[in-house]
Amino acid sequence: MPAFQSVAVIGAGAWGTALATVAARAGRNVTLWARNAEHAARIASTHDNPRLPGVRLVPEIVVTSDLAVAAGADMLLIATPAQHLRSAVNMLASHITKPVPVIACAKGIEHGTHKFMTDVIAEAAAHAQPAILSGPSFADDVARGLPTAVTLAAKDEALASALVQALGSATFRPYHTTDVRGVEIGGAAKNVLAIAAGIVVGRNLGASALAALTTRGFSELARLGRACGARTETLSGLSGLGDLLLSCSTAQSRNFALGIALGRGEAAPAGKLAEGAFTAPVLVELAAARKVDMPVSQAVAAILDGRLTIDAAIEGLLTRPFKAEE
Ligand SMILES: NC(=O)C1=CN([C@@H]2O[C@H](COP(=O)(O)OP(=O)(O)OC[C@H]3O[C@@H](n4cnc5c(N)ncnc54)[C@H](OP(=O)(O)O)[C@@H]3O)[C@@H](O)[C@H]2O)C=CC1
Ligand SMILES: O=C(CO)COP(=O)(O)O
């Protein structure tokens, strides 16, 4: 019996559902936990989740709203939105009485505390062994078994490697690292930058402008990463540059789609979670505290809270003083 034979996924949205299929494909015994009992019962009986339409779950995946059932697994994947990760882990905490890996699968930074996901896990559940999974991977692609590669980070390299062995398969290839912060920064920042990229497309500024924006966006992501102690190879790896490229290139990304709508002066797509909108103000606060210049992210935050028009933001970015490329 391999280590981590049983896996529970907390949060039955698009990503949680896709991750349940990943773990099942890797041969694990999987429990998918939904907070709503009716949703759980419906997914269990139909093997279909309206949050990830068109994907049929294998019947071996146990779907439940009973937290005690899920909490007994050998590893826990938390796939709620970032701002709800703390409440999810708080609920789990009383069930976690011995060391168990708790893997954050959300991309974001907590409002108010400026804490990254693994720090929130460590605070909320004393026995948890925090880890993070992030990288270029749309839930729909992953659930359909299209090839994807991500990064999985834990402070303990042996643990990160064992988690990769437990979750990896031919179509879902996690790479392990101990650079937890690097992985967290990439996933959080890329969503904000994807909104900016979408605005460029929505405003018809052209493919050259999109490439420039994405590249300068990476530059500021990497600046913040370095200031927070992240490693260069993580920032330019799957969870940093890789996810930025994916999210800045297709309207399959909800953050990019939000940016397109903003750029066109249209309403935001209804019912779609765009984490970048929640991360933008916190990211900018964090950057200011670290004295890191993040002009694109600042512009996104200012546009989202109505302090700046899109035209003024574009003009502001294009009239910054010329400087050396770094
Ligand atoms: N979708 C994707 O392609 C990817 C998403 N991610 C990340 O995963 C995270 C989740 O995104 P995604 O699954 O797409 O979002 P969805 O909107 O599809 O689903 C979010 C899920 O979280 C549940 N939820 C919300 N609050 C809580 C809570 N307090 N406790 C428990 N469950 C809760 C919701 O429950 P209910 O149904 O009852 O409302 C819902 O099922 C985000 O941080 C996102 O950036 C990462 C990689 C890929
Ligand atoms: O994180 C993702 C892909 O790696 C999903 O992107 P969106 O949240 O923008 O849809």
UniProtKB/TrEMBL annotation:
InterPro entries: 6-PGluconate_DH-like_C_sf (IPR008927), 6PGD_dom2 (IPR013328), G3P_DH_NAD-dep (IPR006168), G3P_DH_NAD-dep_C (IPR006109), G3P_DH_NAD-dep_N (IPR011128), NAD(P)-bd_dom_sf (IPR036291). It is found in: Cytoplasm. Pathway: Membrane lipid metabolism; glycerophospholipid metabolism. GO terms for biological process: carbohydrate metabolic process; glycerol-3-phosphate biosynthetic process; glycerol-3-phosphate catabolic process; glycerophospholipid metabolic process; phospholipid biosynthetic process. It catalyses: sn-glycerol 3-phosphate + NAD(+) = dihydroxyacetone phosphate + NADH + H(+); sn-glycerol 3-phosphate + NADP(+) = dihydroxyacetone phosphate + NADPH + H(+). Its main location: cytoplasm. NAD(+) binds at residues 11-16, 139, 254, 272. Sn-glycerol 3-phosphate binds at residues 107, 135, 137, 190, 243, 253-255. PROSITE patterns: NAD_G3PDH. One of its GO terms (molecular function) is NAD binding. Keywords: Cytoplasm, Lipid biosynthesis, Lipid metabolism, NAD, NADP, Nucleotide-binding, Oxidoreductase, Phospholipid biosynthesis, Phospholipid metabolism. Catalyzes the reduction of the glycolytic intermediate dihydroxyacetone phosphate (DHAP) to sn-glycerol 3-phosphate (G3P), the key precursor for phospholipid synthesis. Belongs to the NAD-dependent glycerol-3-phosphate dehydrogenase family. This is Glycerol-3-phosphate dehydrogenase [NAD(P)+]. It comes from Bradyrhizobium rifense. The lineage of its organism: Bacteria, Pseudomonadati, Pseudomonadota, Alphaproteobacteria, Hyphomicrobiales.
